[in-house]
Design a protein that fits this description.
- By secondary structure, the protein is an alpha+beta fold.
- Among the domains are: 43 residues, no CATH class; 78 residues, Immunoglobulin-like.
- The protein contains one helix and seven strands; from the N terminus they run αβββββββ.
- A hairpin with a 5-residue loop joins β1 and β2.
- It is elongated, with a radius of gyration of 47 Å.
């Protein structure tokens, strides 16, 4: 890498050569003057022969780069830090214990709220839970699936196979520490045969 001073000197040298060569090209006479003893003649604008433009001169500068980096020096201008006024870091406010709106409860599901066949032969099932009491957020456990919700009517989505009885356990935990659970059993509606 070249140092900053070396680059500046090379730039000045290139500029000087360019200006000097340009000056020589512009001030050189276009034709060689001759002395005549004839009477001067008047030249009309049609007879003026334009002087050809000077040929540009190309200067090649060879720069040698070495592996030795330039020495690191301190900055000439002192760096001063602008003082930043202190800001107060927001502190989390203590959370009050949520007040329960009554005992936590949900009615046992008696049927599916929605179902549809899947391309692989399984069935996607949905149950809408209707939670009362307790305080959100609620943690809902449906067998091995668990999710947190602020809704009192969350949707539980699961998969069923063939015509087996749908048997699961639902457990809901409230933010105020209450817990309620219930088992349910639903006959798959896609397997029910209408009576006579």
């Amino acid at each position: 890498m070249l140092g900053q001073k070396t680059l500046i000197m090379l730039s000045c040298l290139c500029l000087t050569l360019t200006l000097a060569l340009g000056l020589v090209a512009c001030t050189a006479p276009a034709t060689t003057p001759t002395t005549t003893t004839e009477a001067p003649t008047v030249v009309t604008p049609k007879e003026i022969i334009p002087t050809p433009e000077p040929t540009p001169i190309v200067v090649t500068v060879i720069v040698v780069v070495t592996d030795t980096p330039p020495p690191v020096t301190e900055a000439a201008v002192p760096v001063t830090e602008t003082p930043v006024p202190p800001t107060e870091t927001p502190r989390p406010q203590p959370r009050a214990t949520p007040t329960s709106v009554g005992p936590l409860y949900f009615p046992e599901p008696r049927g599916l709220d929605h179902w549809q066949f899947l391309p692989d032969g399984g069935v996607e099932c949905k149950i809408i839970l209707h939670i009362t009491g307790g305080v959100p957020p609620y943690i809902v456990h449906h067998d091995v699936d668990t999710f947190t919700t602020w809704e009192t009517d969350p949707e539980i989505v699961f998969r069923a196979e063939a015509c087996s009885l749908i048997v699961h356990t639902i457990k809901v935990e409230s933010a105020d520490g209450q817990t309620f659970s219930d088992d349910y059993a639903i006959t798959p509606p896609w397997c029910v045969t209408p009576g006579p």
